[in-house]
Structure to design on (181 residues):
């Protein structure tokens, strides 16, 4: 299978794991050793100012930390849209990438037009993501910068499915609890 780095994994209706139900995950790395990514549509109640003060001057005021996934929830990962993509620690797609390693001061980051801070990440061991894809747990779509930095994380799942079109657009309209319809 080709690498899914730079793609979105949109939780399919069969994926009922509470960590991933109705999530949209940006795949940051994918290879023979497995895959990792961050959930884009789970903002936490904690602000960047409170949780990671060293990064507060790099994000908009009152920006929330997002829950990137269940793996190492104390780890801080930062996605940015780089003016100079070669300065990214890991370039995911286009000009979007992860900030390099530990950040001591805001000056170390360089020119980044937008940033999003995540606590934790999603991870898959070798072959695990491929198995989940074969089970139709995930719907794959190419990522766009506006997905990563959306102002409407609650609407992202539906928006990406509508963009994909066809039967996925119908799925986008499915209520959270179809039994309550």
């Amino acid at each position: 299978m080709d690498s899914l780095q730079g793609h979105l994994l949109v939780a399919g209706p069969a994926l009922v794991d509470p960590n991933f139900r109705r999530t949209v995950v940006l795949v940051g790395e994918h290879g023979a050793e497995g895959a990792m990514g961050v959930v884009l549509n789970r903002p936490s109640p904690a602000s960047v100012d409170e949780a990671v003060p060293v990064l507060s001057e790099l994000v908009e005021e009152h920006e929330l930390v997002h829950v990137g996934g269940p793996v190492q929830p104390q780890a801080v990962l930062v996605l940015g849209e780089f003016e100079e993509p070669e300065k990214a620690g890991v370039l995911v797609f286009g000009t979007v990438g992860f900030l390099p390693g530990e950040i001591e001061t805001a000056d170390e980051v360089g020119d980044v037009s937008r940033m999003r801070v995540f606590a934790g990440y999603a991870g898959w061991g070798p072959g695990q993501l491929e198995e989940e894809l074969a089970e139709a747990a995930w719907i794959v779509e190419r990522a766009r910068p506006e997905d990563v930095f959306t102002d409407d994380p609650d609407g992202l799942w539906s928006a990406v499915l509508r963009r994909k079109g066809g039967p996925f657009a119908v799925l986008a309209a499915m209520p959270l609890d179809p039994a309550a319809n």
User: Anything to note?
Assistant: The radius of gyration is 16 Å. The mean pLDDT is 91.
